[in-house]
Amino acid sequence: MAIDIKNDHKDSIEIIKKYPKDKRYTLAILQDIQREYDFIPREAMILISNYLDLPISNVYSIATFYKALSLKPKGKYTIKVCNGTACHIRGSESIKEEVGNILNIGPGETTEDGLFSIEVVNCIGACALAPVMLINEKYYGSLTKEKVKAIIDELREGCTNE
Ligand code: FES
Question: What is the tally of structural domains in the chain?
């Protein structure tokens, strides 16, 4: 089915039209789109490209250059594994590996079922609990590989029971 970009992306159009037709606003528009959808839909990039009369490849390269922008929707649970100094000293590398092994994805990726995304971050302000990960708004500290598996299993189970 063909995507009706105009109808499916009314919000994108509203965001884009707040800005003057000037390519200097490309990043600002992309940031607003990211805030709205939590990622940058391809359709929004096409709309920006048309509006600013800018090749889609330019919009794409800006969208991929900035780490804060994501081209893929994030999972229901975003797992932020801390790799700051305190966590690193207390074994965050193996925690990061374990999360990746369990979910079979790497940092910046989302599982196929759309449940989990992984991000590796620096200090999330809970060093006393190192090694730590933050899943959505909740902190999990003093992690071990076993704890990581139990936490992910529990979240998965919660989703199958919904
Ligand atoms: S270094 Fe991980 S919470 Fe501070």
Answer: 2
Answer whether 121 contacts ligand 1 (Cβ < 6 A): no
Q: Is 126 in the pocket of ligand 1 (CB under 6 A)?
A: yes
Q: Supply the angle between the helices 26-37 and 10-17 in degrees, to the nearest 10.
A: 150
Residue count of the chain = 162
1 within a domain of the structure (yes/no): no
Range of the domain at 31: 7-65
pLDDT along the chain (162 residues), means of 10: 54 92 96 91 94 96 90 90 97 97 93 93 95 96 97 90 66
pTM, two decimal places? 0.72
Instruction: Confirm whether 112 is domain-assigned.
Output: yes
